[in-house]
Every structure is written in C-alpha cells, then in structure tokens.
Design goal:
The structure holds two protein chains of two kinds. Chain A has a domain of 90 residues. Chain A is 78% helix and 0% strand. The longest helix of chain A has 33 residues. Chain A is rod-shaped, with a radius of gyration of 22 Å. Chain B has three domains: 77 residues, Alpha Horseshoe (Serine Threonine Protein Phosphatase 5, Tetratricopeptide repeat), CATH 1.25.40.10; 51 residues, no CATH class; 64 residues, no CATH class. Classes of the chains: A mainly alpha, B mainly alpha. Chains A and B meet through helix 1, helix 2, helix 4 and helix 6 of A and helix 2, helix 3, helix 4, helix 5 and helix 6 of B.
Chain lengths: 140, 227
C-alpha cells in the first residue's frame, strides 16, 4: 500500500515537472515569434573595412574589453544589466535604421577617417572586438 | 559451549529488517531523488517563464539572464536556444552564432524553424551570408506567416547578392575575421568565418584563397588568445 502511494506520488511529481517545462517552452516560443527581428541589409564586406575594424579594436575595442564595460558585459548577470542600461535603449527599439544611425554617428565621432561603410563594418563585426567601436563609444 | 557459540553466530548474521521494510526504504530514496530532480526542473521552468515574459516585453538583457539561469538549472538545455535568440535581439550577432552552435550541440532535438530564423538573422548580421542562406532555405510555414515572409524576403536579397562573383576583398575580410576570432580562442566563430571563405572562394573562377585556416594546435596564452 505504502509502495503504491509512493509510486503515485513520484509519478505525479514528474507529471507536474513535465507540464511546467512544456509551459515554459510554449511561452518562450510564443515570445520569440512575437519579437522576431528583422535582419540588416546584406552587403558583402571588403577587407578595407576590416582595417577600420582593426583600428577600432586596437584603440577602443581593447579598452572596452579589458576595461569596465567589457568586463561587465561579458561576465554574468550584472553585466547584462549594465548592457541594458547603457545600450539598451537603442537595442530595445529593434529598429535597425535607428541602430545603424547611432553606430554611424559614433564611428564618425571616434574615427576622423570613419566613413559610413566603416561604421557598418563595426556595427556588424564590432562585437568580436568587445562589441566595441561605435556601440559602446557613441552613447557614452 | 560450542552449541552456544553457533547460536550467537547465527543470531548475528540474521537480517535485522524484513524484505518489505527494505523495499519501502528504497522507494523513499527513489522518491526523494525524483522529487529533488522535479524541483530542480521546476526552478528552471520558473526562469524559463520569466525569460519568456521579459523577452515578450522587449527586455532582452533581463530575458538573457533568465534563460541562462534556466539553462544552468535545467536538464533539457532548450533554454540555450532562447539565450542565443536573446543575443540576436541584443545585436551581438557573433556571440549569437557561437551560442546557437553550442545550443545545437547540447540540445539538437530542440532545433526548429523559429530558431533557424533567429540563427539566420545572427549569421546575416555577422555577415555570414552563406550560413544565413542555408538556414533561410529551410524556414517555412511552421515558423508562422510573418517570419516565413521575412525569411523569404531576406533569402531573396542574399541570393541576389550571391549571384555576383564575390570580390577578393570580401574573401580577405572573412579570412581576417576568422584569424582574429581564432587568435581570441573563439574556435566556433573562426570556423564560421572560414566556412564562409571556403564557400565564397568556390564561387570564384580562380578559387581565390580557398583554405588558409590556421593550425588549431596553438595554445591560447593567459588572456585566452592564440598566437
């Protein structure tokens, strides 16, 4: 009798856990479908843009990675919160045009020789160098 | 005297509890294990639900934290896919490319067209167009009408762009990005860039710089960078 009760209890606990997992996945899937992003305009890069990226990486990107922002953004929960606080507004809109504008303005400010193309490069590739260049730089 | 000793020995080898008692004890142990695993799952599910709510509200950094916690607590690892999707919305495409790669290794069964769309956007934003092209080809009705249409539109633009022979400068760019990623110890990202190099090179008549992939045996230094 006791064995039966225990078995039923275990089965019920497993069912509850499974149902909760299914709920979480359904909710998350619906959220992803609702907030599906639009992609930026595809454009093949050129190695000259990478030179620009190097410039940013060497001067600003490195600093971001090793400095406060870089550390915070790459490490754990607090970092994510920081990311939101500092860059979230631009990101939250999900508006690619607005985001690109921020990137372009920032890159132009940071790099005297910065062209729109270069800003595009940083917007795409900058993350690897600390999501560096313009995104970090501009709003600060 | 000898008989007394034998009796004492027989008593000491007697099982102190009945078979039923042992069975109940074992069941209790099993139940405890099951309930502890169930509670661990429930904790992960709470974070999964919280992540979903944050994501829906457009709070992507908070959603990312919740999904990552769910990933750590849970055992299905499906949360890894959601975390990768957060990185797409946070405009961190290279990290997203890596995260999707990791998610696929951990929970390949969770992959579906919705995740493929997000992954394609990550590839596109990281300028990994061949990767995006491949993924978008598989996104259809199951992802829903809006995403299907977005995927179709983006796919058409990428295919149009790839009709032209890729310039040498583009291949050089991918080489450089791959090498940079490799030096930082980001093997998956480097691989993605070098795959792009191989694909683009194959689209040129002269097969410009097809496979100059660095040797993976070099050890990363203290900062995790490879020389």
């Amino acid at each position: 009798m006791i064995t039966r009760i225990l078995t039923i209890g275990a089965a019920a606990a497993m069912l509850v856990a499974t149902a909760a997992a299914a709920d979480g996945n359904n909710e998350a899937h619906e959220a992803l479908a609702t907030q599906a992003p639009s992609a930026s305009k595809p454009e093949l890069p050129d190695v000259s843009e990478a030179d620009g990226a190097n410039h940013h990486e060497g001067e600003d990107g490195k600093a971001n990675h090793e400095g406060e922002h870089g550390k915070a953004n790459h490490e754990g929960e607090q970092g994510e919160a920081n990311h939101e606080g500092e860059h979230g507004e631009a990101n939250h809109t999900g508006d690619l045009d607005e985001h690109s504008q921020i990137g372009e303005q920032s890159a132009a400010g940071a790099d005297p020789a910065g062209s729109a193309e270069r800003a595009g490069s940083d917007e795409h590739g900058g993350r690897s160098s600390g999501n560096s260049g313009p995104e970090h730089e501009g709003p600060h | 005297m000898a008989a007394g000793r034998r009796e004492t020995a027989a008593r000491s080898t007697k099982v102190p509890t009945s078979f039923a008692e042992v069975g109940v004890k074992r069941m209790i142990l099993v139940l405890a294990l099951l309930s502890s695993s169930a509670f661990a799952g429930t904790g992960a599910d709470e974070h999964l639900l919280a992540g979903a709510r944050e994501f829906r509200a457009g709070h992507f950094p908070e959603a990312l934290v919740q999904f990552r916690v769910a990933e750590k607590l849970g055992h299905s690892n499906e949360a890894a896919w959601y975390a990768a999707a957060c990185l797409v919305r946070l405009k961190r495409p290279e990290e997203a490319v890596e995260a999707f790669s990791a998610a696929e290794k951990r929970a390949p069964g969770a992959r579906d067209e919705l995740f493929d769309y997000y992954r394609a956007v990550a590839c596109n934003d990281a300028r990994l167009y061949l990767c995006a092209d491949k993924l978008l080809a598989g996104v259809g009705d199951r992802a829903g009408p809006r995403i299907r249409d977005e995927a179709k539109k983006l796919h058409a633009v990428i295919q149009e762009m790839l009709k032209v022979e890729p310039p040498k400068g583009a291949i050089d760019w991918y080489h450089l990005r791959g090498q940079q990623a490799f030096r930082r110890g980001r093997a998956e990202l480097a691989k993605a860039y070098f795959d792009e190099v191989a694909g683009l090179s194959a689209r040129r008549k002269d097969h410009y710089r097809p496979a100059e992939v660095p040797v993976a045996s070099s050890k990363p230094d203290a900062k995790g960078q490879r020389r």
